[in-house]
Amino acid sequence: MPLALLALAIGAFGIGTTEFVVMGLLPEVAAEFQVSIPAAGFLATGYALGVVLGAPLMTALGTRISRKRMLMILMGLFIVGNVVTAAAPVFEVMVVGRVIASLAHGAFFGIGAVVAADLVAPQKKAGAIALMFTGLTVANVVGVPVGTYVGQHAGWRVTFSLVAALGVLGLLGVARLVPEQPRAEGVRLRQEVAAFRNVQVLLAMAMTVLGFGGVFAAITYITPMMTETAGYSTSAVTWLLVLFGLGMVGGNLIGGRYADRRPTLMLAVSLGGLALVLALFTVTSHHKVAAAVTLVLIGAFGFATVPPLQKRVLDQAVDAPTLASAMNIGAFNLGNALAAWLGGLVIGAGLGYTAPNWVGAALAASALLLAFASSALERRTTAPSRLVATHAPEQAAVPEPRS
Prior knowledge:
Blueprint: H1 3-24, H2 26-33, H3 37-40, H4 42-61, H5 67-87, H6 91-102, H7 105-118, H8 125-154, H9 156-177, H10 189-194, H11 199-219, H12 222-229, H13 237-259, H14 263-284, H15 288-304, H16 306-316, H17 321-348, H18 355-380
Helix pairs in contact: 1-4, 1-7, 1-8, 1-9, 4-6, 4-7, 4-17, 5-6, 5-7, 5-9, 7-8, 7-17, 8-9, 8-13, 8-16, 11-14, 11-15, 11-16, 11-17, 11-18, 13-15, 13-16, 14-15, 14-18, 16-17, 17-18
C-alpha cells in the first residue's frame, strides 16, 4: 500500500470524526443552547450543505495549484472551522463553525479519491479509493465513539477541540507522505464542468444523494431513537456507534473489493439491502439486541455503496475527474442534509423517533430504481450518453504522470 494512501486516510479520519460525532452529542448541544433536538439537527444539515457548496467552490479554486498543496489548504480550513465550533458562544456561531469546517470536506475527498486512484494500477482503483475511505469508516469505530464519550463527560467543546487537533495531524500527514502531483496540463475548469453532460455521471450522483440519504435518515437522530425507543441509556450510545462504525468498515472494504469485479451487482445488492434493513429498523428499534444488529447492517450496506459509486463517477468523467469526484462527495452530503431535514420534519410532525427510518427506506429504494435505470441505459449504448447529443466532445486531457 503506498504510504500516501495512509496520509489520505489520516485526513479522512479527522473529517469523518467531525462529521459524525455531532450526532451523538445533539442532546448536550441542545441543552446548552436551549434549542430543540430537531433544531440541533441543523448542525448536521448545515455541515452537509456546506460540503455541497464547498465541493465545487474549493475544487474550482484549486485548479491552478498542485493537488498536494490544495489538500494541505483544505486541512487548514478544517482546523479553523473546528476551533470556531469549539469556542462558539451561541448556537448560530457553532453552525458557522460547522459550515467553515465542511467547506474542506467535499474537495478533500474528491481530490483525494483522484490521487488515490492515480497511485495504483487501473484494475485496483476502487480498492485504493476504499482504503482512503477506511479513514472515514474507522473514525466511526474510534473517533466518533470516543468523541461522544468525551463530550458526554467532559463537554462537547472538548470533543471539537480534539477534532481540531486531529486536523493538525492530518495536515502533517499530507505534507509528509503525499507526493507532489502537478495539475494535469490541458485540463481546465470548463472541461471539468463538461463532464456533467454525461447522463451516467448525473445518475451516479443522484444514486449517491438518495442512497446515502437513506443512511442518514436513521443515523442523524440515532441518540434519541436508541434512548427513547429502544430503551438504552445515554452512555450506551457510545458503543452503539462503535457497532455502526464496524459495519461501515466492513461494508466499505467489501464494496471496494467487489466494485473492481462486479460493480453493477455490488451496487444493486448494497442499495437493496439498505432499503430492506431501514424498513426493518422501524420494528427492530423497539428491541435492544435487534436494534444493535440492525445498526451494524445499516453501516455495512450503506458504505458498501461508496467505492462503486465513486469509481463509477471517475470512470465516466475520465478526462476531467477532479470536479466530478468532489461533487459526488457533495452528493453524499446533500443526501445527508436531505435526510436530516426530512427526519426532523417527520419527528416534528409527531410521528415518533422511528419515522425517519421509513424516510430512509424510501430514499434507498429510489436509489435502487435509478441503479436499474442506469444499468439499462448502459446496455443500450456503446458510448457515454450525453444530454446534448450534438455537442462535440472535449479534447482529452494529457494523462498526468504517476508518482
